[in-house]
Design goal:
Helix content is 37%, strand content 20%. The chain is built from 26 helices and 34 strands. Strands 10, 11, 12, 13, 14, 15 and 18 form a seven-stranded mixed sheet that branches. The protein has a four-stranded parallel sheet with strand order 2-1-26-27, covered by helices on one side. Strands 6-5-9-19 form a four-stranded antiparallel sheet. The protein binds zinc ion (2 copies).
């Protein structure tokens, strides 16, 4: 027997898999396809434990499903554009492209060292012109379909990253990447009209039964649909002007006692011109506009309002109410004006108290004393009957929502409306290392798309590095100055690049035909492979990447380019990897890397531990004893297989099947059943692995019970072979080596997954004597392997014994397995 040498075994098989091109996938309509995809990484240059976890999960599925006779596609690639490459370029004085290429090479080696079964023929790199050519092509498709547009607006600006950010990339007022405070700036930027798909992005969540509920909920909240009425208030002093406001509570319209407009509202200036409030208001406006959206809308931020000297006319009753300018109202959301209903809105009540504005109750809860007005300390936001509401009095407010809206509609003063919280996706980035936006500006012709045959618009290859950042594309005259594709006159290129989230919004489609040079992807291939059957990645992408990818998919579906309108059938959001209860970090000194593990124990041990320590969607705590335990188990497997190989060359008896053989077969079939359903139905890889461990124990027990002269060679060989097959998705190298030792044909990873026979699982029964407080009280028949708990349950179910135990507490149970149970009861 040789000792288990993981490095030797792993290197041997990794080389062989590569030489034999073992994991290549081809479209093949005779088999059912299965698309397993892990979110592709950013090539930072280092694989961390989070990566190792997500790849291990994906690889178990890919290997398992191949053995279940699926045609599995399992590709990998690189989300290669982005800021860290620029930062590294400055730090190390190296071209971002070279830095990226070097990292990719290194990380790919690390991935292969884990034994992940990727089809490398499908590798893609989003920063390669072959790829970003098609990102540009898709941008132009969006442009032609009216989904890409440029507009000047207040945008999120991160000074540290020196670029704008999408709303999805601002977390609690901070940049998602560097945690700097985000400012607001007025800039002309490119947007994608994702709001045009808000409704479908929301309703189609219902199709995604294989997605975690919490991810769907996060998307639902982000899209933020609300129903209500848009209502027009005339300005008393300027009857030709109106202020439009959106409310979800038109039933409270009679309760409006003031109106607040955003400082950015275009009417502010004309309203205050010539009033005594003019100077004060304009001063306030310019001060507020320097604050960020987040500062202004924070829960604890003081709500400040200034009277404009003008009045709005309530369209439902002609009442005149003061118009104020308020810091907490934003132009970017809704209409930039809100009606104040202090009796029925918490924020409005607080505001009314502060500025001594009137309070009017218009919804009265049923079976309750009349609500106070001026002394009100809490707004009433519940249901009730409409009061102080003219002809609507007595109506239930829920019905009133519809009735008031209808009334306004008939009068041309308002209409039913649905609004969304979702904003359009800002995609311009003022950075070098990204996909250039393929637009040319001509003085005569305006914005002109770069003609398709001229794609890709390539990044300048020679990068000048200076200062603390890589200069943006505006710095390269050869890039900027071009002839207009329409009139041939002098023109200049757009110098912004695209948000890297565009690259990852369609990469799963490119994997189906990575070398296609006529289109972003080949139609037949994309139809065969899509959708992704199982997607695996982090929860941090719940509203970023996952929303954007759904949006792109829907646009391409509408353009007739693909036949699916949702990209990811099932989604698994894996948990985090911790060490000693904390996130791994350099400063805490608790970092374990995949390289460390591979070097010390081998990839199989690392994979096995990661999958065994916790179910995939739960957080995982890295602990050394656990790793040791998994390593010991693999050594046990190794010993079993190698010892058996030695023995079987001597003893090849074919003894009869007795009890020991029946027991071994029963264990085998129980393990097959458990491993199969745990992987397939529940992704409970941890319990699947313990079932394999139990099977290995059972094989040891069999060997001990029979002795090698009496092995039933056939039964033992079959059990060992199948145990090795069950282990193969989790620990692919040792399984492959064991398979070879056992004399198996071909690769273990190309074997059919074993079937289980339910009949084999039927267990033997045994009669057990039951004593209560030392006296024999009866006998029961139970399965041989019943646990103590089951025995007590069965004992209680026996009429006579149940009666004796009734109302008593069981103090102690003494069991002689298969023979006797003594229950001590008081
Ligand atoms: Zn930043
Ligand atoms: Zn022109």
């Amino acid at each position: 027997m040789t000792t288990y040498n993981a490095t030797q075994i792993e290197e041997k098989w990794q080389k062989l898999w590569k030489d034999q091109d073992s994991y290549r996938s081809e479209a093949n309509s005779s088999k059912t396809k299965y698309y397993v995809l892990e979110m592709f990484p950013y090539p930072s240059g280092k694989l961390h434990m989070g990566h190792m976890r997500v790849y291990s999960i994906g690889d178990v599925l890919a290997r398992f499903l191949r053995m279940r006779d699926y045609n599995v596609i399992h590709p990998m690639g690189w989300d290669a554009f982005g800021l860290p490459a620029e930062n590294a370029a400055i730090e190390n004085n190296v071209n971002p492209a070279h830095w990226t290429a070097r990292n990719i090479e290194h990380m790919k080696r690390q991935q292969n060292r884990l034994g992940v079964s990727y089809d490398w023929h499908r590798e893609i790199n989003t920063s390669s012109p072959d790829y970003y050519r098609w990102s540009q092509w898709l941008f132009l498709l969006m442009y032609r379909r009216g989904l890409a547009y440029k507009k000047k607006s207040a945008v999120n600006w991160c000074g540290t990253c020196a670029t704008v950010l999408a709303n999805e990339q601002v977390e609690k007022g901070l940049c998602w990447r560097c945690s700097s405070l985000v400012e607001t700036r007025e800039l002309e930027q490119w947007f994608l009209r994702i709001t045009g798909y808000a409704e479908r992005l929301l309703y189609d969540l219902d199709q995604l039964s294989g997605w975690p509920e919490r991810v769907k909920l996060m998307q639902q909240n982000w899209i933020g649909r609300s129903e209500g009425a848009e209502i027009a208030f005339k300005v008393k002093e300027f009857p030709e002007e109106e202020i439009r406001t959106f409310t979800t509570r038109p039933d409270t319209l009679f309760g409006v006692t003031y109106m607040v407009v955003a400082p950015e509202h275009p009417l502010v200036k004309p309203l205050v011109t010539g009033t005594e409030q003019e100077e004060e208001v304009l001063d306030f406006v310019s001060r507020v506009r320097q604050e960020t959206e987040i500062e202004r809308t924070a829960e604890e931020a003081p709500k400040v309002g200034l009277f404009t000297g003008r009045h709005a006319v309530n369209p439902i009753n002609g009442e005149e109410v003061p118009i104020l300018v308020g810091n907490y109202v934003l132009m970017a959301y809704g209409t930039g004006a809100v009606m104040g209903v202090p009796a029925h809105d918490h924020r409005d009540l607080e505001f009314a108290h502060k500025y001594k504005l009137p309070i009017r109750v218009v919804i009265q809860p049923e079976d309750q004393a009349e609500l106070p007005k001026e002394t009100m300390t809490e707004a009433y936001v519940g249901e009730g009957r409409m009061v102080n509401s003219g002809s609507f009095n007595g109506l239930k407010n829920t019905a009133g929502i519809k009735k008031v809206t209808e009334h306004l509609e008939q009068q041309g003063k308002g209409n039913f409306r649905v609004t969304y919280r979702l904003r359009d996706w800002l995609i311009s980035r003022q950075r070098y290392w990204g996909t250039p936006i393929p637009i040319i500006y001509c003085e005569k012709c305006g914005a002109v798309p770069v003609p398709e045959p001229e794609l890709p618009v390539e990044l300048p290859r020679e990068v000048e590095l200076f200062g603390d950042r890589v200069p943006s594309l505006a710095h390269y005259p050869d890039f900027v100055n071009v002839d207009c594709p329409d009139c041939g006159g002098k023109a200049h290129r757009e110098t912004d690049t695209m948000d890297t989230f565009i690259c990852s919004s369609w990469y799963f489609l490119r994997f189906t035909s990575p070398n296609c040079d006529q289109a972003p992807f080949n139609a037949a291939d994309v139809d065969y492979w899509m959708p992704v059957d199982q997607y695996i990645g982090g929860i941090e992408h719940a509203v970023l990447h996952l929303l954007y990818a759904r949006f792109f998919t829907k646009v391409l579906y509408d353009a007739g380019m693909i036949k699916v309108n949702e990209p990811f059938n099932r989604l698994l959001a894996q948990g985090m990897v911790y060490k000693d209860g904390a996130k791994m970090s350099k400063s805490k000194g608790n970092v374990v890397t995949p390289d460390d593990i591979v070097e010390q124990y081998g990839a199989d041990t690392g994979r096995l531990f990661i999958l065994f320590a916790s179910p995939p969607e739960k957080d995982l705590d890295w602990n050394e004893q656990g790793v040791e335990g998994c390593h010991r188990f693999l050594r046990r497997v190794w010993r079993l297989v190698t010892e058996y190989a030695d023995e079987s060359s001597i003893v090849k008896s074919k003894n009869d099947q007795g009890e020991n053989e029946t027991e071994l077969r029963r264990n085998l079939h129980a393990a097959i059943k458990k491993v199969t359903t745990d992987i397939e139905e529940r992704f409970n890889f941890n319990t699947a692995i313990s079932a394999i461990m139990e099977l290995v124990n059972a094989i040891y027990a069999y060997r001990q019970a029979t002795g090698k002269e009496n092995y039933n060679y056939e039964v033992l060989q079959e059990t060992l072979e199948k145990a090795v097959i069950l282990l193969a998705p989790f620990a692919p190298h040792i399984a492959e080596e064991s398979w070879e030792i056992l004399g198996g044909r071909g690769s273990v990873h190309r074997q059919h997954w074993p079937q289980y026979d339910l009949k084999m699982l039927e267990v033997d029964q045994v009669e057990v004597v039951i004593q209560v407080n030392g006296k024999v009280r009866g006998r029961i028949t139970v399965p041989t392997d019943s646990s103590e708990e089951q025995l007590i349950k069965e004992a209680r179910a026996n009429a006579r014994i149940g009666e004796l135990l009734d109302g008593k507490e069981i103090a102690k149970v003494i069991t002689v397995p298969g023979k006797l149970v003594n229950i001590v009861a008081r």
